[in-house]
Write a structure and sequence with these properties.
Elements: H1 4-7, H2 10-13, H3 57-67, E1 74-77, H4 80-91, E2 98-101, H5 108-115, E3 119-122, H6 133-139, E4 144-150, H7 162-171, E5 175-179, E6 201-206, E7 219-222, H8 225-234, H9 242-251, H10 255-276, E8 282-285, E9 292-297, H11 300-309, E10 315-316, E11 326-330, H12 334-344
Helix pairs in contact: 4-5
Organism: Mucilaginibacter mallensis
GO molecular function: histidinol-phosphate transaminase activity; pyridoxal phosphate binding
EC number: 2.6.1.9
Length: about 350
């Protein structure tokens, strides 16, 4: 049975969070002489002399309308990477606790674990890129605090079997963190809808992919209110700057435009798969629920270098376990995909 107090670090239980100037009053005000800001303004057309909302309420309210989740169940981070780091710092004791990773998967889980001095237990995916439930069960011990699952998975592109994830959620006493960075491109439904069913569920999403806001660095975590409260206590007070909040809020008004882009990306993904499979050097193209495809080739390094020389950058994943021989190719615009395919026709 999951209990947040059993996995929360003792120092975090006792932590008194930083109290910002904007946290210490309620209501409306017109004169702000509390935060040592420059009251004269900013040397810009837009004024950024005031500190931003530390809890980003307007953005969370708009996300709440889109996702169907109350604002109190939403954490916003400086990219999903900050949410990942905050989870490590909140729940894992350095040098004592461990987490389970299921490679091949997103590399920042391992980087963040290493930064925080948290042991990693790796349980590779099966050859079908699905969870090895028996292996995960054997890897869990009294100091296992979190299991990270990327679905749709990066770099393989496939979604992880939903029943397998629910098995972990129902039987693991730590956090199950599901990274849904690519969920907008997937045929699978989000696990956000299961938040009320599983107290140990954390879902990560981002505005960097489908929403096209990678430069703003806005990541999301969805979880129970008690988990979100811990994350808000641990994060820096002003972790999302005012410009990012304003632009994210403006972008979140354009759901129809983003949905149109998603449909076009999926069409272009199908087109890439259909065309690439006819090239002699392509051995396999794995099913994808993301905005990229994993392509197994006869000469990944040679193809990669050939494309680089032509000014086209893809990702060489051939040294990653279970991705031998593979290139990861992001779905571009029709014009970018034309250039890629035309260039590859000249590869010998």
């Amino acid at each position: 049975m999951f209990s947040i107090n059993k996995i929360l670090r003792e120092n975090i239980k006792k932590l008194v969070p930083y109290s910002s100037a904007r946290d210490e009053f309620k209501g409306e005000a017109s004169v702000f002489l509390d935060a040592n800001e420059n009251a004269f303004g900013s040397p810009l057309e837009q004024q950024y002399n005031r500190y931003p909302d530390p809890l980003q309420y307007k953005v969370k309210k708009r996300l709440s309308d889109i996702k169907g989740v109350p604002p109190r169940n939403i954490f916003l981070g400086n990219g999903s990477d900050e949410a990942i780091d905050v989870l490590f710092r909140s729940f894992c004791n350095p040098g004592v606790d461990n987490v389970i990773l299921v490679p091949p998967t997103y590399g920042m889980y391992e980087v963040s674990a290493n930064i925080n001095d948290i042991k990693i237990n790796k349980v590779p995916l099966t050859e079908e890129y699905q969870l090895n439930l028996e292996g995960i069960a054997e890897a869990i011990n009294d100091h296992t605090k979190m299991i990270f699952i990327c679905s749709p998975n990066n770099p393989t592109g496939n979604s992880i079997n939903r029943d397998d994830i629910e098995t972990l959620l129902a039987n693991f006493s730590g956090l199950v963190v599901i990274d849904e960075a690519y969920i907008n491109f997937s045929r699978q439904k989000t696990f956000i809808q299961e938040l009320t069913e599983y107290a140990n569920l954390v879902v990560l999403q981002t505005l960097s992919k489908a929403w096209g806001l990678a430069g703003l660095r806005v990541g999301m975590a969805f979880a129970s209110e008690e988990i979100i409260e811990v994350m808000n206590k641990v994060k820096p007070p002003y972790n999302i700057n005012e410009a990012s909040q304003e632009l994210a809020l403006k972008a979140l008004q354009n759901v129809d435009q983003v949905n149109g882009w998603i449909k076009e990306i999926l069409l272009q993904r199908d087109r890439l798969v259909l065309t690439l499979k006819d090239f002699d050097f392509v051995l396999d193209i794995y099913p994808s629920d993301a905005n990229f495809i994993l392509v197994k080739t006869t000469d990944p390094k040679g193809i990669y270098n050939f494309l680089v020389d032509k000014g086209i950058i893809v990702r060489d994943r051939s040294k990653v376990d279970l991705c031998e021989g593979c290139l990861r190719i992001t779905v571009g615009t029709p014009a970018e995909n034309d250039i890629l395919l035309q260039t590859l026709q000249n590869y010998k």
